[in-house]
Amino acid sequence: MITSTRHPLVLTFRRLGDRTRRDPQRVLLDGPRLVADALDAGVMIETALVSAGATETRLAPLVARLREAGARVHEASPRVVQAAGSVVTSQGIVAVAQRPAEADETILAAPDLLLLVADGIQDPGNLGTMIRAAAAAGAKVVATVGSATDPFQPKALRASMGAAFRIPIMHGEAPRLRDALAARGVRILVADPHGTVEFTEAPLDPPVAIVIGNETGGPDPAWTPAGLRVRIPLYGPVESLNAAIAAAVLLYEAARRRAGEPRR
């Protein structure tokens, strides 16, 4: 049993939990929900730390699944599991998994493409919620752009409720993605509180990309010549909607259209 918070495994887990770092190969899974979601999605889990006695608690079925999947499971003291994780209160299990492969540009050629572009979204809670909304609305892929935070960092993963394992995610820069979409005839809609077209009247039929810009600076200027500016009307004394809420509204309007429901 691991009892030292200076154990090499604990230090590895801590590095993966550091939101300022982006590991290209591995991700940290904190808590039974994310571990189970990763297993359900077929993600390869390499190593897990579980609180001593976990095989005799509610975590026993999950520990058994981890072992069946080939993960190395180590028992550790509760203090060590807490130190290895990224949350204030440990839920008794933390794991390291292989990072899902990034989607490539070929997916942009799908005729039924519904793409959410998270342009410079830096708040991990917002990004995770946007990914969750995209998966729920049936989007084909999510693209993070520019300075957007890592969708697989712990807080973003928790906010996505594991949806990041169930929808393809790609990363790139705005000019390149804009050109790739234009080359494939994909319509680009950019959320803008001052947009010229209300979202209920916007052409959201696929293939379409919905761009949500940075929480304070807005979308990259590279989208200006290519994207139609779409607004969500505000009926109260606020300047704008939260980025994740705006994404969900537009995604579900696109999903409603795809289902054949008439515009309202």
Could you characterize what this model shows?
The protein is α/β, with parallel strands linked by helices and about 260 residues long. The chain has two domains: about 90 residues, 60s Ribosomal Protein L30, Chain: A, CATH 3.30.1330.30; about 150 residues, SPOUT methyltransferase, trefoil knot domain (Alpha/beta knot, 3-Layer(aba) Sandwich). It contains eight helices and eleven strands. It has a seven-stranded parallel β-sheet, sandwiched between helices. A four-stranded mixed β-sheet has the order 1-4-2-3.
CATH topology call of the largest domain: Alpha/beta knot
Strand-pairing-aware structural class:
alpha/beta
Rounded mean pLDDT is 92
The CATH architecture of the largest domain can be given as 3-Layer(aba) Sandwich
- By DSSP, the count of extended strands is 11
- Approximate helicity band: 25-40%
**First-to-last CA distance:** 61 Å
CATH superfamily of the largest domain: SPOUT methyltransferase, trefoil knot domain
Q: Kindly provide the name of the CATH class of the largest domain.
A: Alpha Beta
Poorly predicted residue ranges: none
Domain count: the total is 2
Put simply, the count of helices is 8
Tell me the overall shape. Answer: elongated
Largest sheet strand order: 7-6-5-10-8-11-9
Q: SSE order in H/E notation?
A: HEHEHEHEEHEHEHEEEEH
Largest sheet: 7 strands, parallel
Rounded to an integer, what's the Rg over CA atoms? 20 Å
State which percent range the strand residues make up: 15-25%
